[in-house]
């Protein structure tokens, strides 16, 4: 059992130990990590730190006590909605992350369905096989059935709107599209899903946790991003993470709604206890002020031009990666447009290759369907493309030459 020290230690000693403990962690500052961290460089990191620290003690739970935070959150939501074609009256809230945003969107859709008199028994959510597992977590909490539908069979790795429509019934509270999905980096056909959702009269949620603060700027840079947001009339809600490609400090996402009428089904309002009445917009009670202030600080520091520059750099890096892995005989999964990509080799199991690239100091990820290597690229990766490709080639040779010592294939199979 670890016990608290009887006497406190000098902070310099404690800090040195903290730094030392991190010595064996993934080396994301060197660009050798392509998951978990979104590295926009030291200048943005400094903004995150300082802006977070300015409001680190404040609590977003108390808008009357801290109107500054309430105003910053309102402006962050406004900036998000302006990027994602939010109509007049659209609104939303900041949350702690994508899972939180998705959970609150599902809770809101469930309560909205109840308000319309839809059945409470057999409630379900319909989503593609590639949709994020956060929907399953939220469904587990609310005892909602998850109906995962196979993807299109045309090699696009997109959601299949017709098949999803067939899975909808009178107790369906939500359909889900991804922009993009996490496993493959593919944007689902949101317009087609919208047509199905409108026909079935069911709530359509777009999970843009990865792409919400990327795709608009990619489109501004000329990437042919299809309609995926509130531009599609059937979209009721969206989740979009600020701490991913918004490059904000962690603990920051947004959940957005087409109208105040829909949003009103999200907050929790309670007066029937001994304490003061309380209304909370999201799952959390205490809401770290630093996450709100850092998001506001980063978004205002970068502006549209800054985001266009960073997202253009990521797209260019992805294209370089695509060209490089193709030269090595890998095949790209679908048609990724943003910062995510998955790829596999016809002559080598992806998980075995992953084990080799991991041994060479790269902490990335894998996709199970199909077995693939997976990269979530940041601006920093522009500096290490050739290094990664060189190690990938060596890893591939180790696997195809029978010299691999990886146990990863057995672990994930």
UniProtKB/TrEMBL annotation:
Its cofactor is pyridoxal 5'-phosphate. Keywords: Lyase, Pyridoxal phosphate. This is Sphingosine-1-phosphate lyase. GO terms for biological process: carboxylic acid metabolic process. It comes from Hyphomonas pacifica. InterPro entries: GrpII_AminoAcid_Decarb, PyrdxlP-dep_de-COase, PyrdxlP-dep_Trfase, PyrdxlP-dep_Trfase_major, PyrdxlP-dep_Trfase_small. The lineage of its organism: Bacteria, Pseudomonadati, Pseudomonadota, Alphaproteobacteria, Hyphomonadales. It comes from the Bacteria. Belongs to the group II decarboxylase family. Sphingosine-1-phosphate lyase subfamily. SUPFAM superfamilies: PLP-dependent transferases. The modification N6-(pyridoxal phosphate)lysine is found at residue 244. GO terms for molecular function: carbon-carbon lyase activity; pyridoxal phosphate binding. Transmembrane segments: none annotated.
